[in-house]
């Protein structure tokens, strides 16, 4: 006997509970026409990160992905925000940090398992149904789907904010040719609050709900080239991601969700010692961090960010490691960033190494970093000499 659409939806909601899905919502598969116009303006302004699907039709029209699409099922899983007894940085043993969205097992894998379980239930209820599962890396906009499906509203920080879990949620969706009664969108509830815009250290949140991805520190931690000097001191100890715009949100205060064991953080992975990161081989990096979402771009961005953190902390115990990178590493970005860190730390050993490297370095960008670092070392030496004479 053929089931009614409302019965199928109810059965899927029950299955979502069994699968420990925190939120499930249903939306029509009509094109996101308003979103498409916003994305056009976003592109024209130069605010795209380059990680997005380039085809705006695929990002806004579910039928470009599944031609017979009628409905979209959106899900959300909450993740933890606190660690039990997190390891702390100490002089000579400074640590970096992976953002909360990279704690535990890679969320792409976890959400896909949940969605595949939901898909199996749908096919049991409607044999022969078509369904396509997507998590984050799919063409369709996760946030637009979640908003239409009533999971939450799109906050001024561009995150989906849920009444129950704040924005500490992962999103995924499934497009299907089965008609399912849609849910009502959640009305926007940020009100007059501008905490996220005020706290953004780079001004990447150029307006409520509008992000210049190219200036966003979360994006910049994932790039592989040189990080512009004006951003280096703003990273703090972050190795992957950045979450100030979420941390200051009133809806996120005192929220911590530990019911998904897959997302339980390994403290030594998410707050690793910085100096050992500089020596990891590709194999060692994959073995240690490969199960985390923050590993997707490989070790180079993580090592670059670790070097920046050591320079920012002015860790003199890291000078020998940084000199080795400056002299021996085949990657210009790593050599140049090591030069910057040595200039920031200063001291005779750093200055001598920079001076020697400047005589043999062939990469123009690295040479520029060395010259700037030497200038910083000379400035420090002059300041120290002046202080000595005044004393």
From TrEMBL:
Keywords: 4Fe-4S, Cytoplasm, Iron, Iron-sulfur, Metal-binding, Oxidoreductase, Queuosine biosynthesis, tRNA processing. It comes from the Bacteria. This is Epoxyqueuosine reductase. It comes from Melghirimyces profundicolus. SUPFAM superfamilies: 4Fe-4S ferredoxins (SSF54862), ARM repeat (SSF48371). GO terms for biological process: tRNA queuosine(34) biosynthetic process. Residues 181-210 form the 4Fe-4S ferredoxin-type domain. The lineage of its organism: Bacteria, Bacillati, Bacillota, Bacilli, Bacillales. GO terms for molecular function: 4 iron, 4 sulfur cluster binding; epoxyqueuosine reductase activity; metal ion binding.
């Amino acid at each position: 006997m053929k089931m009614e659409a409302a019965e199928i939806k109810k059965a899927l909601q029950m299955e979502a509970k069994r699968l420990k899905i925190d939120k499930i919502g249903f939306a029509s598969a009509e094109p996101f026409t308003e979103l498409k116009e916003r994305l056009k303006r976003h592109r024209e302004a130069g605010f795209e990160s380059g990680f997005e699907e380039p085809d705006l039709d695929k990002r806004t029209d579910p039928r470009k992905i599944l031609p017979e699409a009628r409905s979209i099922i959106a899900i959300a899983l909450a993740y933890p925000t606190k660690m039990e007894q997190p390891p702390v940085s100490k002089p000579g043993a400074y640590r970096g940090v992976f953002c909360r969205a990279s704690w535990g097992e890679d969320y792409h894998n976890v959400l896909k398992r949940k969605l595949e379980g939901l898909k199996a239930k749908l096919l049991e209820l409607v044999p022969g149904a078509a369904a396509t599962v997507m998590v984050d890396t799919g063409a369709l906009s996760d946030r637009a789907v979640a908003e239409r499906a009533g999971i939450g509203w799109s906050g001024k920080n561009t995150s989906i904010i849920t009444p129950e879990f704040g924005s500490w949620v992962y999103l995924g969706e499934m497009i299907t040719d089965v008609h399912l009664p849609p849910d009502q969108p959640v009305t926007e509830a940020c009100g007059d609050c501008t905490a996220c815009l005020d706290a953004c250290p780079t001004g990447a949140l150029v307006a409520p709900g509008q992000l210049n991805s190219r200036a966003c520190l979360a994006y910049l931690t994932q790039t592989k080239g040189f990080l512009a000097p004006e951003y280096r001191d703003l990273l703090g100890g972050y190795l992957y991601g950045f979450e100030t715009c979420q941390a200051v949100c009133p809806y996120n205060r005192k929220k911590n969700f530990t019911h998904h064991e897959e997302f339980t953080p390994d403290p030594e992975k998410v707050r690793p010692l910085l100096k050992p990161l500089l020596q990891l081989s590709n194999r060692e990096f994959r073995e240690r961090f490969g199960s985390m979402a923050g590993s997707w771009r490989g070790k180079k961005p993580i090592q670059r960010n670790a070097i920046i953190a050591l320079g920012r902390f002015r860790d003199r115990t890291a000078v020998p490691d940084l000199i080795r990178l400056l002299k021996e590493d085949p990657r210009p970005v790593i050599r140049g960033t090591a030069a910057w860190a040595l200039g920031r730390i200063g001291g005779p050993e750093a200055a001598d190494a920079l001076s020697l490297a400047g005589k043999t370095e062939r990469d123009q960008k690295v040479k520029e970093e060395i010259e700037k670092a030497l200038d910083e070392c000379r400035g420090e030496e002059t300041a120290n000499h002046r202080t000595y004479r005044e004393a």
